[in-house]
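To close the chapter, one final illustration. This time we ask the reader to focus less on the individual chains and more on the assembly as a whole: which components sit near each other, and how the overall shape emerges from the parts.
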Amino acid sequence: MKFKKILTIGLSESSLSADYWKKIDALASKRISLAKEDSNIKTQLKDTDCLLVNPFAFKVEKEHIDAAHGLKYIGVISTAYGKVDYNYAATKNIAVCNIPGYSTEAVAELAFGVVLEHIRELERAKRQVKAGDYSESTFFNTSEIMSKKFGILGLGKIGSRVAELAKAFGADVYYWSKNRKKEQEDKGIKYVEVEKLLSMCDFISLHLAFTNDTRSFINDARIKKIKHGAMLLNLAPNELVDFEALDKRLSNGDIWYIADHTDEMTPEQIKLLSKHKNCILYPPIGYTTKEATIAKQEIFVSNIEGFIKGNPINKVN
Amino acid sequence: MKFKKILTIGLSESSLSADYWKKIDALASKRISLAKEDSNIKTQLKDTDCLLVNPFAFKVEKEHIDAAHGLKYIGVISTAYGKVDYNYAATKNIAVCNIPGYSTEAVAELAFGVVLEHIRELERAKRQVKAGDYSESTFFNTSEIMSKKFGILGLGKIGSRVAELAKAFGADVYYWSKNRKKEQEDKGIKYVEVEKLLSMCDFISLHLAFTNDTRSFINDARIKKIKHGAMLLNLAPNELVDFEALDKRLSNGDIWYIADHTDEMTPEQIKLLSKHKNCILYPPIGYTTKEATIAKQEIFVSNIEGFIKGNPINKVN
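The assembled structure is written out below.
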């Protein structure tokens, strides 16, 4: 089997390397690539049997699925697939496949990178040497991960890996997740209620998926519970955190907030948070390693190949 | 038992917190504190039975030991004790005690801090956000520790802990050490010859003690063997590396050197290395965590108390 027509929306040529585009092109008679704002999307969808989409650029809604009479497959080039109406797609027997786990290691390593960068004051240390000062005298307020309480909210793939690494660093690791994870508890990762975790942990790392249930999960009441001196680390979606409440707590100067999804913050949100010295913002560099980029493309293309061969993988619906 | 006179050389009041000075003062009838360049050192040594010394400020040589007729104890406020003539001290029945291991965790965590800071380009990422650019588009050349070859030269306390953490990060871990370490090999840390390690590893971390045998251990021939693209990490003494040979290799632009003992580099050495963009220098912040500072003082004072009670601990001679 081969697709008649692959339509891509919101993907650029640089979204995949030439090798992977070649593999994709071998799976269909033709490929049309549209930008997210193209007015021809619905017309082009009519005879599309394979839709490849970047869900951060384009939401696949009922109307699009209805417009695509012959659609069999939707390939989502991300782990998150909430912006594709996958339940409705299922009613039309359209497979939706995502790319789970490709950035697990990249994000987990970044978590410890930004934690250590902060608690050892690495930026300031480098800058000081460049300015000709080689003394350690102002670095005696730095600290270690060892023996600290490290809390994970959301013990999925990434949360579990962060928990494992925190344990390797000698931290006392706690978690809360919607479901208890026996196999993690057997490794010494201890379950506690959300509020308890927030009030006792020195490091709090968010690894929840963003759903209607988790919007503003870290709300005003919970932000108030965060331990004095703690670091709240958010390499997960911004929507998990109530920014107005966070702004208030950051004003107290007694917690740190480190996050990387600045690309999805509004100018107002950036302004609100970046005024705080105890807020450290990064670009979304959690998933950008060479290794994750290769894995992402590999899985994205394997998904399409698997579907064609009748062995769908990473099907979410 | 109590000492008659404690003499400190090269220690400042801030070397220990007030609590620990109090504990020390309880162990002697009096305490005299001298700067390293004080001309009265030999005179003061005459009736000293307990000498506390910062070996980075002051070398304790035969002549000092000979001048101190009643000396029983030399407390070294560091892990390194090579600058105290401990063998000669032993012939006079003088105990020399050091502070082993107090900074193991601090140094090992720093190793991963500076590695991740570098491979994820954290400084540039933070700076970019401050400049109002939230795009990850220039961070796709970053990389992970997972699955890389991580080499450790010197598998003592710190080297072993770095090896353990590298393993937790999913690296393929190799070591060379003067003696084979069976218990580490059982954990999957693989022994290889120095040259082999240098030529195959992506990360090479130095954890050798500085002795006459290890001066310029990383010499010209070995520097030439380092894998193209590798990172040489030196949180150990500068003397382990031949800086002129390193300068030549850094000029090729195909390896990275990250080190933290800039305080012990000469202005010429700083000039030689800091001109390279692929050389990242830090102040000596490996041991400066709050946790290590407390452990250091605790062990330093416990050593003196142990000796007085007839149970010397951390005696090196």
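The longest strand of chain A covers residues 3-9. Chain A has two domains: 3-102+291-308, 104-281. With these observations in hand, you are ready for the problems at the end of the chapter.
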